[in-house]
Amino acid sequence: xxxxxxxxxxxxxxxxxxxxxxxxxxxxxxxxxxxxxxxxxxxxxxxxxxxxxxxxxxxxxxxxxxxxxxxxxxxxxxxxxxxxxxxxxxxxxxxxxxxxxxxxxxxxxxxxxxxxxxxxxxxxxxxxxxxxxxxxxxxxxxxxxxxxxxxxxxxxxxxxxxxxxxxxxxxxxxxxxxxxxxxxxxxxxxxxxxxxxxxxxxxxxxxxxxxxxxxxxxxxxxxxxxxxxxxxxxxxxxxxxxxxxxxxxxxxxxxxxxxxxxxxxxxxxxxxxxxxxxxxxxxxxxxxxxxxxxxxxxxxxxxxxxxxxxxxxxxxxxxxxxxxxxxxxxxxxxxxxxxxxxxxxxxxxxxxxxxxxxxxxxxxxxxxxxxxxxxxxxxxxxxxxxxxxxxxxxxxxxxxxxxxxxxxxxxxxxxxxxxxxxxxxxxxxxxxxxxxxxxxxxxxxxxxxxxxxxxxxxxxxxxxxxxxxxxxxxxxxxxxxxxxxxxxxxxxxxxxxxxxxxxxxxxxxxxxxxxxxxxxxxxxxxxxxxxxxxxxxxxxxxxxxxxxxxxxxxxxxxxxxxxxxxxxxxxxxxxxxxxxxxxxxxxxxxxxxxxxxxxxxxxxxxxxxxxxxxxxxxxxxxxxxxxxxxxxxxxxxxxxxxxxxxxxxxxxxxxxxxxxxxxxxxxxxxxxxxxxxxxxxxxxxxxxxxxxxxxxxxxxxxxxxxxxxxxxxxxxxxxxxxxxxxxxxxxxxxxxxxxxxxxxxxxxxxxxxxxxxxxxxxxxxxxxxxxxxxxxxxxxxxxxxxxxxxxxxxxxxxxxxxxxxxxxxxxxxxxxxxx
Length: 819
Ligand SMILES: *Cc1c(COP(=O)(O)O)cnc(C)c1O
Prior knowledge:
By secondary structure, the chain is of the alpha/beta class. The protein has 35 helices and 22 strands. The structure holds pyridoxal-5'-phosphate.
């Protein structure tokens, strides 16, 4: 049944003709010589044509209506494959499957041909992708602005258990079929040089940036297709192209580019995504990426504003700019520069616009992730921006003086400039000072932002600091990735739940219905089989779907504590071999995680898990009770197989360290039970599902802080707990690295001598005990099914549609516009 405007025109014969035309004219294959990959490309191109038409129509309609829009600025958009998702949004899945069938092709197989556009690291980039999906589904006018990296996040493989990174050329040689280049939107971006003063004809004094070089910004649009509506919004990704030969000559002149020459010669600013998650590396090329992104995006926002016939004075009325973390902070001084230097606006008028246009999302409290840039670097690369930052700070410190007269401590603490041997610009402080709203991403996190990170800012600017709890799109994370569950849900609560997730609450009344429980668990079993098949095909490991599938998938980071999970596995291993009274339900522990290439301990943890897996999976003494599977190259398309197959979701960060998490939400929506700490959005998930339907353990935020203050001693736990000691000591043996003891010692060393900064040992005993409760609960399948159904039923709060409505109502003041 064709239901909406985007699909009304669907004409199967015309679509097939379009596919064949692309196959022959775009990709130069005959129907005889075409590979499955070529068929996929041709099909995706034919579909992309439909959405490109709607993209332009949406653009025109919104311009004509002078609709207020949000501009979502993010250095990362981890969108995942588009074809299957867009087919669902367009309502064309069945139609296209049948059309392709008639062309002798299987749609499911073709969808597997698409490479993931991995233009993000993890949660932050995936959030941006879910938000674009929710903006389009609810028709809140929006443009996403990001970077068109030539290489996305590295691809991960394992060699003898160690992570190996290879470049991710996500576009292939043919280019990505969903993207369309927009040459008319090209921008020129300046870098380096100096600032000078000059007088205009009327004798007014102005500042002017004389750049050392320029680069071009090319716009590529990806269509964000609204679910079951006519809106298509652009995800606009900027690609940096080499400077023109004229500039190259200047570029060769050391006066202009000085020490930056090698970085620039290496090429293209948008060559590769920095692979760090929750860690600030502070490389000059990264600053250049950030500025390039901001300069192109600000210029494009102003272009759109004027193209729609609007005056610059009305910018804040019609546009808002959301900064996804501090990565695009330099957009603030960039807009100030344009308004003052190019529009010749006074400081106050420019500031009034800027401070009413920008809003900022804080994603972390981890000190190593809070960005600072050396003043010297900014001075060299962006001299005019440095002047503007100084002026913002100068005026801000006057406000601080008025609020706390004579208090230099508070000035030092709040200043945008951090004093020291090398003066640094604190990007988060610049954001809080210059925006009209600052939000954390879960209730607990936002409280900690106010209480621990920015208490004085909260006093100085009452109401500015706020919360918007993260969410995930139910279109990709239930409907697309879990068709079996989706059918069950639709049968019970109707088919519009993907855009009205409140309706899944209707499932709760079937939580005790035995027939429904069985169907729910049968779907889970099928999804476990799909994962087991993937593991058999790709890793040649045999798995039993009667085992508990216990899954931890997320970036590898000490604060996320994959090593706590590992210690538990080692404890089980030890008990199975040494305690004849010990019994456990068979369990498969899955991991998926990439480590930043420079993060040695994270890579050691991957190695250790792989080595333990090798041994455990082949040890007949364990009777198949324990398996460990580390899936390589964790990415969105693998996540789509893993989340639906989980019985248990591992969300075990040290309390206060995970800002929100979104993997936790995807698991629970798909009927997994969480074992988790009182951290991030786990806290709100517990509120929704109730204490009986989630397994909470570990220290609370305040207990963590207290323990640290009192002087935490990991040896206290090590000495007192023989099971913990056994698990830890296995890491020092050659049990998993025969003949080579010590290969896994770095982890033990870090936990004992390194002070265990994330309190792994302190939470170990409670973690083990809570896993025993899970084991017992799983043995009662009816009770388990009851809990699993309630998890799915009670997750509606965590739809990113709700997050976006919160932003629209409480921050952006944005109204939907029907297209
Ligand atoms: C959801 C998701 C994440 C975020 O997971 P967390 O557990 O919240 O850290 C990271 N990577 C991918 C591919 C995801 O889909």
